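Support reply, case 0932

Customer input (verbatim):
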Amino acid sequence: MTGLTLNLDTVHLSDEQFYQLCQNNRDLNFERTARGELIIMPPVGGDSGNRETDLIADLVIWNRQTNLGYTFSSSTVFKLPNGAVREAWATPIRSPDAAWIRRERYLALTPEQRRKFPPIAPDFAIELRSATDDLEMLRAKIREYMEAGVQLGWLINPQQQQVEIYRQGEDVEVRNLPTELSGENVLPGFSLNLSLYAL
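Our regenerated output:
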């Protein structure tokens, strides 16, 4: 099952209405694109869920050792700041498979902002393509992250045995799996070995 995209065209959900929609339908995962489209994300299968957990575990272990920030799972929804979006109802609201935010940036948010959908772009985001994910949709999603200020993004694509590395102001780098990724200056000392993703 792929994600279902609803074109709300003339129906514009406010941020509070979107939040209530998510609260009233906790078994579903919703996202909103910069065009105001509502996406209902399907659950992932066992292989993708296991891989996602491994990614988050590696990120959490590194973060506990460095204590530099906060790690987030795919259940976390971020309201991405985007200067190109003029209407509040079209602000992208997205859920990366894993994300990380520097401590001082996250703590600068109010308790209310942290409790709901944090209005902040992560410093780092990972998208892991599952067997049902549309690759172009994931690429569009990670481009939204970068436009909102994400500094480093990885799109891991086990189906094509590749990873796409997104950096601010640079062309996308594509590597074949297996490979080892570096957190560069965004996640100092973090590395991720993707040999588990090679078929």
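We compared this against your earlier run and they match. Two observations from our side: The chain has a mean pLDDT of 86. Residues 46-66 form the longest helix (21 residues). Please reopen the case if you see a mismatch on your end.
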